[in-house]
Amino acid sequence: METLHLRDDYIKLGQVLKAAGLVDSGVEAKIVIQDGQVRVNGLVELRRGKKIVAGDTVEYAGQTVKVE
């Protein structure tokens, strides 16, 4: 499990995927999120702009990112 440290109060879901290196671009992030391939705290999330805060986990392609 990878850990991503916040600089602000939150980060958007698409940005988490890019920052963690799970996708190469914002366009790719948008596609995988809209296809229902991304889970936030165990639930499928379809909004690219979903605010991710400390304590949340993001799962995609068998990899998990913990946001702190």
Keywords summarizing the entry:
alpha+beta; two-stranded antiparallel ribbon; Structural Genomics Hypothetical 15.5 Kd Protein In mrcA-pckA Intergenic Region, Chain A; 2 helices; 5-stranded mixed sheet; globular; 68 residues
Poorly predicted runs: none
Mean of the pLDDT scores? Answer: 96
By CATH reckoning, the class would read: Alpha Beta
Helix percent band: 10-25%
Q: What class, by secondary structure content? A: alpha+beta
Tally of structural domains: 1
Q: What's the arrangement of strands in the largest beta sheet?
A: 1-7-6-3-4
Which shape, going by the Cα principal axes?
globular
> CATH superfamily, called what?
RNA-binding S4 domain
- Give the DSSP E fraction (strand runs of 2 or more residues): 25-35%
Distance between the termini: 12 Å
How is this fold's topology laid out?
Layout: E1 2-4, E2 11-12, H1 13-19, H2 26-34, E3 39-40, E4 43-44, E5 51-52, E6 57-60, E7 63-67
Parallel strand pairs: 1-7
Antiparallel strand pairs: 2-5, 3-4, 3-6, 6-7
Describe the structure.
With 68 residues, the protein is α+β, with helices and mostly antiparallel strands. The chain has one domain: Structural Genomics Hypothetical 15.5 Kd Protein In mrcA-pckA Intergenic Region, Chain A (Roll). It has two helices and seven strands; from the N terminus they run ββααβββββ. The protein has a five-stranded mixed beta sheet, with helices on one face. It has a two-stranded antiparallel sheet with strand order 2-5. A hairpin with a 2-residue loop joins strand 3 and strand 4. Helix 1 (13-19) crosses helix 2.
